[in-house]
Amino acid sequence: MITVLTGGTGGAKFVDGLRQIVPQQDLTVIVNTGDDLLWWGLHVCPDLDSITYVLADKLSEERGWGVERDTFFCLQNMRQMGEPAWFQIGDRDLALHVFRSKLLNEGKTLSEATAEITARLGIASRILPMSDSRVETRVLTPNGEMGFEEYFVRRQYKDPVTSVRFAGALNAAPASGVVDAIASSELVLLAPSNPVTSIGPILAVPGIRDVLRGSEATIAAISPIVGGAAVSGPAGTLLAAQGFEVSIAGVADYYKEFLDLLVVDLRDAHASDELREKQKTRGRGSRKVAPNIHCTPTIMRKKEDRTALARSVMEACRQCSETQNAAEGA
Amino acid sequence: MITVLTGGTGGAKFVDGLRQIVPQQDLTVIVNTGDDLLWWGLHVCPDLDSITYVLADKLSEERGWGVERDTFFCLQNMRQMGEPAWFQIGDRDLALHVFRSKLLNEGKTLSEATAEITARLGIASRILPMSDSRVETRVLTPNGEMGFEEYFVRRQYKDPVTSVRFAGALNAAPASGVVDAIASSELVLLAPSNPVTSIGPILAVPGIRDVLRGSEATIAAISPIVGGAAVSGPAGTLLAAQGFEVSIAGVADYYKEFLDLLVVDLRDAHASDELREKQKTRGRGSRKVAPNIHCTPTIMRKKEDRTALARSVMEACRQCSETQNAAEGA
Questions:
Q1: Model pLDDT for residues A266-289, shown as the tens digit of each residue
Q2: Residues B77, A71: C-beta atoms closer than 8 Å
Q3: Residues near A272 by Cβ (< 8 Å), separated by ≥ 6?
Q4: pLDDT digits 0-9 by tens, A108-134
Q5: Which architecture characterizes domain B1-64+93-330 according to CATH?
Q6: Hey, are the CB atoms on B78 and A95 less than 8 Å from each other?
Q7: ipTM
Q8: Does A81 contact B106 at a Cβ distance shorter than 8 Å?
Q9: Which residues in chain A have their CB less than 8 angstroms from residue B96's CB?
Q10: Domain spans in chain A, listed from the N-terminal domain onward
Q11: Percentage of residues in chain B with pLDDT exceeding 70?
Q12: In whole angstroms, what is the distance from residue A302 CA to residue A164 CA?
């Protein structure tokens, strides 16, 4: 069993690679719901949607979100009626939001609704929202506090970020199946998603960080930071705002409590040598002395890049696990 | 001020004619909501929608319902997810249902939501749902009782009809503005809609029949029955099921409590002579001895037919009103 923690478009691409080389039924995907929003009165879960579309083979390659070959006629009419139109929902995409909203309004939990949707779409992997409670990623900027999609999509992440908080996290619980999935997996992968606003909200749900710390699984993260900057999106700005270095060292630091393996891009070969040196000489308060580092191409431009990255990560995890077992055996 | 009572596609065509010859702001349209349904969890009001699209100049001429040049991609995906797809909602059309559902879920009444929608679409006429309470047209057939759209669209009105009832009507009240609109109009027109399931539900809302009976307006109906059969749809079957003749006499009888003028098709010239004779010799319990009858082409195939019918009806009403005034003056 493999469990992936993910959110955002980088994560969706990685899961797309993974599903090509791993049997779908062996895969559990735990998804950030901190970006969820009530849009036109409908329950929209951007990260759950992307993962759902990837696993249903419907994700738009071109856009990286939404449904392939979608149209936007409903959106046009919404705009004509004076409703906000900055968050783009396609006509085919709408079906998912309308159906999810119906299930939630009938009293189903988000994980029940998600299970119903994946079953209807014939997805064999399990998709789990991180929590059935509302946990909302709130971004504080000099222009006010706002939800993540407003910061990210509407304002094109141009605002400087003062801080990020996960409203509701303290009272949230992991959705049914989340803790078990992590605890029973041999491999837990943190997708190359924004650590602060894609993986961060998942880790903020009480109980999830604990099960990761206590897990015997090999826990690997793919760095979304390459050459000292985010591959895409505001991960750099947000890491810095949270007091982390915008580098693979910052990513390692963010996940230090439980990370066994950090997968970094070839361009960070030198940085990874430095990181190894620094880790040797620095005492660390984490369960594991320091993560192994694996260098491989991580930029996923083409479809083949995704599979190649997934393969490379799986192989590195296997080696990492063997080394750990040997060390424990010794 | 002119008030039209309407429902269904015949009514929408007639209102389309009327809006070409009457200033939009002089027009109030009171619309049947007995066909409303919760579809995919959204509040869909088929008759309100048709009138809204007609007055916004968006109604599909081709289909007679929905938005012109619409696509059905959301519907396709709903079908793929195993949701019912027999009631066809287009992508452009969806905007209206999503927006209305949002307003209703926020606590607005149906008439408030309708006013908001018409304002957003720049419609100068007033569109009023017959009631803000749920009144549901239920059709009893040997195959069970069902909502009107299920009988009409899903089962293509093939079931024999035992009876029709308006669930919730006894506890319903006219929506705000309905009684005033009728009371203050010089002219009340009953569109060539199904008397039983389009106009019938409006008349079943307590208070509406009374204000019609007490009204000093000229009240005219355009017969949807031509040559002893419905122009389209199940009006014939339903009139018969309710114990009315499927003829212009049946229509006159259905509206006998308040009708001043019945507009019938040229093909019913002979039947209208018969009806006049019968009315002369038969005592009637209604406020008005018998309606005047006006013969004119009523079938609206082309756009021009609609305007021509509206013009003819307006002229007949003017004459009828003059005759009444003369009679009262005498």
A1: 999 999 999 988 887 655 444 456
A2: no
A3: A248, A264, A293, A295
A4: 999 999 999 999 999 999 999 999 999
A5: 3-Layer(aba) Sandwich (3.40)
A6: yes
A7: 0.92
A8: no
A9: 77, 81
A10: 2-58+109-152+163-329
A11: 97
A12: 32
